[in-house]
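Please, structure for the following, as tokens.
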Amino acid sequence: MSSIEIFLLDLNPSAVLGEQFKQVLMSSSFFFVRHSKQSLEEWLPSCFETSFSGILSQADPDLIIMVLSHFVADEYRQLLEKMSKKSIILPIMAVFESTSSLDTMILMLRSGSIIFIPSPLTAQKVLPVVWRLVANQ
């Protein structure tokens, strides 16, 4: 069976959440993970087309996982909406720091994120969810 390609877009590189998520995913030989640490500024509306096209030209991911901070929820909501409209068949999952509010999670789900996984991250929580997301596409 071929590996599932995941693009892990870490928009909160100062935190360790993205690295933890990467390690959990890489614990399975079924996943190939491209981990990209970027700033939110690289995803502002004026740069969105170039940044999103860059992901798709670097890789042909089966899933995009965004690692987000809870501090700039409105900017992330707008980014998720744009990504969801741009790629209707490619699932996008948002991963937040554990301090995110439930209201923020609902807002992100409405904006196009498919699912949330609560902290702490474990292989038992993460791998089945990721597998189901990709298998259902």
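The CA atoms of residues 5 and 62 lie 5 Å apart. The mean pLDDT is 77.
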